[in-house]
Amino acid sequence: MTMSLTMRLLTTLITLLISICPTAIAQTLNESVRFDEKIHDFGSIGETDGKVTHRFVFTNTGRDTVTLTRARSGCSCVHAEVSRRPVLPGRTGYVDVTFDPDYRPGHFSKEIVVFSTDNRYNRIWVKGDVTPGTHPLTEKYRYDYGHGLLMEYKVMNFGTVPQGATRSRSLSFGNNSTATLNLTFHVNSGETKGNRLSDSAASAVIPAGLIIDIPERYLLKPGEEGNIDVTVRMLAPLDSMATIVITPVANGFNLKPLTLTVHPAK
Fold first, then answer.
1. Largest alpha-carbon pair distance within the chain?
2. What sign for the dihedral angle of Cα 161, 166, 167, 168?
3. Is the pLDDT of residue 89 over 60?
4. What CA–CA distance (Å, rounded) separates 171 from 111?
5. Please, which residues bridge with residue 225 across strands?
6. By the 8 A CB rule, do 150 and 176 touch?
7. In sequence order, what are the beta bridge partners of 93?
8. Residue 179 C-alpha from the chain's centroid
9. H/E element holding 11?
10. Report field, pTM of the whole predicted structure over 0.85
11. In the prediction, which pLDDT does 189 show?
12. CA dihedral angle for residue 44, residue 46, residue 47, residue 53, rounded to 10 degrees
C-alpha cells in the first residue's frame, strides 16, 4: 500500500467519524449550568481520617431541560456522582465530589469535568491540604519474616549484571513488634552454608566471581522503619542464574529467608 493511498484512507476515516459522531469530536461549555461555587476548599484534613465529600449545587438558567450524564477526574482519589434526573429551567441539580486523602499527604487541587446534555461540559475543582497520618507497618510491608520483622521483598531480582559491574538495591523493612530487633544478615546459598561475617559486612563469593555485600548489623526499635543497601559485584561472568539466600537473624533467632537472584550476561 502506497503512502498516498494510506493517507487518503486515513482522511476518509476521520471524515466519517466526524459525520457519524460529531459530539465525540467537539465539546462546548454548557452555559445554562450555573454552579453556586466552582471551587471548594476542604481546608486541612487528616490523611487517615477517611474520605471527605462536598455537594456542588447548580441552577439551570437556560430555557431547555438539562440532564447531567457523568463526571470525570484525572485522579483515582476523586469520585464524583451526578444527579441523574432531568433539571427543568430554573430548577437545581447537584454533583457530589468525594476525595480520598489516604496516602496523599500535602496540598492537592483536583479538577472535575461534568458532562451534560449534548456532551456539553462544565468544570469544578476541589482543593485542600492533607496532614500526614500514621499507617500500620503491615500496610506498607507485605512479607512477614517472623519476630515482628516485616520486609518489602520476598525475592530481590538484580537482573543481568555484566562482568566488572556493581549494582545496588535498597531493602526496606519495619519492626512490628514491641521489642528492639538486633538484626544481622547471613549470606549463603543452596550449595554453601555458614559463610563467615567480616567485621563490617557479610560478604560471600557464591559462585566464584560474584560478591554480595550487605551490612552486618542493624538495630530496629519498636515501630521503627529502616533500609539497607544490598550490593552485587560481578568479578567474573556467570554460567547460569545464581540464587543466593540471605537469612535475617533477629535477637539470635533465624527468620524466614530472603532470596536474591542474579542472571548471567548474554
1. 85
2. positive
3. yes
4. 37
5. 174
6. yes
7. 58
8. 31
9. helix 3-20
10. no
11. 53
12. -70
